[in-house]
Amino acid sequence: MSSLTREQVLALIREHLADELDLDPAVISETTRFKEDLEADSLDLYTLVQELEDTYRVAMSDEQAAEILTVGAAVEFVLANDPTGDAEHA
After folding, report:
1. In this predicted structure, what is the pLDDT of residue 2?
2. Which is nearest to 76 in space by CA: 38, 30, 34?
3. Can you give the pLDDT at residue 1?
4. pLDDT exceeds cutoff 50 at 89
5. Which domains, and CATH codes, for the chain?
6. DSSP type of residue 83
7. Which residues are catalytic?
8. What residues contact residue 81 under an 8 Å CB cut-off, 6+ apart?
């Protein structure tokens, strides 16, 4: 896997959420809160966690997932837990 950039991870999460929740990707930023701003339910969040784990080969415990409240926090998690060590920590 080539090195991941913050922008690449954000774009994937934005695309996934927009598709899953039938939203315009432009309304999703790093400060967007999953539950409060996007009205995402637990199934939506579970699906996002699965997408991150499958795409970036990261493992996320239920406790870690519960602490990720914003899109930016999800991006940070992926970058901090990149198994290849190639992610750019911005």
Report:
1. 53
2. 30
3. 43
4. no
5. 6-80 (1.10.1200.10)
6. T
7. 41
8. 56, 58, 59, 60
Chain CA centroid to CA 65, Å? 10
Q: What amino acid occupies position 20?
A: E
Query: CA–CA separation, 84 vs 45, rounded Å?
Result: 24
Tokens 């940070």 belong to residue = 76
Chain centre to alpha carbon of residue 13: 5
Q: Distance between CA atoms of 78 and 90, rounded to whole angstroms?
A: 12
pTM of the model: 0.84
pLDDT single digits (tens) 4-60: 899 999 999 999 999 999 999 999 999 999 999 999 998 999 999 999 999 888 999
From the list 84, 77, 87, 66, the residue with the least C-alpha distance to 30 is 77
